[in-house]
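COMPLEX REQUEST
Ligand: flavin-adenine dinucleotide
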Amino acid sequence: MARFQYRGGDMDTARYEEKKRSLTEVLRSAGGGNIRLGKTTSNLFRDRQGTSAKELDVRDFNNVLHVDAANGYVVAEGMTPYAKLVAECLRHNVMPAVVPQLKSITIGGATVGCGIESSSFRYGMVHETVQEMEILLSDGRTVLCTPDNEYRDLFYGFPNSYGTLGYALLLKARVVPVKKYVKLTHIRHADPKVFFTGLAQQCERQDVDFVDGVVFGRHDMVITLGQFTHEAPYASDYTYEKIYYKSLRERSEDFLTTGDYLWRWDTDWFWCSKNLLAQNPLIRRLYGRRHLNSVTYTKIMHWNSRWKLSRSIGRLLGFHTESVIQDVEIPLEHAPEFLAFYHDVIRFMPVWICPTRACDKQARFDLYRMDPQKLYVNFGFWDVIRGRKKLSPGHYNRQVEERVMALHGMKSLYSDSYFSPEQFWGIYNRSVYDRLKKKYDPEGILKDLYRKCVLKE
Ligand SMILES: Cc1cc2nc3c(=O)[nH]c(=O)nc-3n(C[C@H](O)[C@H](O)[C@H](O)COP(=O)(O)OP(=O)(O)OC[C@H]3O[C@@H](n4cnc5c(N)ncnc54)[C@H](O)[C@@H]3O)c2cc1C
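STATUS: Structure written out below.
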């Protein structure tokens, strides 16, 4: 059987093979019943119905096996969180080409969930940086998928499959060199059209390593450029008392260590920590530096969601609520129109902006089809809309979906979706999905993508 070509430590490789063997035995002994991943963390934001599926314990698959800085790749197990992956890579003066902003996101999760960050304007989304994957299939077999071997259909069909075709146990992904610091330049804009044109122009620059932005209001937007540098006059610290997103409007230049740059959004979960009172100076102290991070907030939110705490309080006060937690990609030419719709309908601020485009113009990822010739703008918005009036379920999320479809965009599936089966399969490619499902999970042991992502089964 084909094997990963890399020079990992013998111990690590042997341990990986051993763990893989026991996992496949567990799977085979499950006798064809439904299975699901057993993990301690998750960045999925759709409540799932109770399930009797057997849990496949993959918590141990969280090691970095090899960093090859000279040849530009890292080999890591599928459930390795980016916190660990980045720490290991930085020791070799490289970073994964795209590092999602939250420390507990895993390399496998980001590959099936289409992760994105401020280096995506150059390298594309996380799955575009993956070079090989060893995937565990529902019958207990493992297959090594590359862009040009006999399993290339699975390689290109895996992104956006959310664990419904198999589980990535080992991945080889691109890394790029880093310097010690990142110099930040914050450019403020008042006109959306000029803002998006400026964003596109910055993406053409060769001397810029990172590009993202934030919309704070109709006439208040910031583009942030990041450039690696060996030296810095100072390095700011946003991991405790100072809050990164607030700095964007307060200064035009800043310096961070590369590690702090990569995790700049994690400390305050972008800005969502405000909903957990973590931006109140007193309560911030109570959290303490150690607990100001996405892992803490995710735990609190999952607990809140399980016990329906804030929803019940809202109801008692006479409010109806809807979570609108979405990331969508809109072609650049339609970005101003989407933003105008956003200001009129969804309204809550801020909104994260991140440009992305295909790195390899020939590559086609079947379940997440974007035009490889186009620059897209990712809009990330995460909050709850409260109102006195009872609206139909998904009132706001459905409007986002309609607008994304009308503007030829794409919507991530990590949170709530309301698409009809026809709409969903028109976007996410039913014919290819059915073919892959028939070939790699013919017994339907893993869930179907629509049932998992829309019906929340
Ligand atoms: C508020 C919020 C903001 C976000 N912002 C960003 C962002 O800015 N940038 C970004 O890149 N992403 C962002 N995400 C999305 C995130 O990257 C995806 O949800 C990703 O899939 C989470 O990865 P995870 O490792 O936590 O996986 P989990 O949450 O544990 O799992 C997600 C799904 O992937 C499947 N899965 C997990 N691991 C594997 C594997 N090894 N093989 C196959 N299937 C697997 C699971 O079955 C599940 O269906 C955001 C999510 C939230 C909730």
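REMARKS: The chain has three domains: 10-178, 181-264, 303-438. The mean pLDDT is 93.
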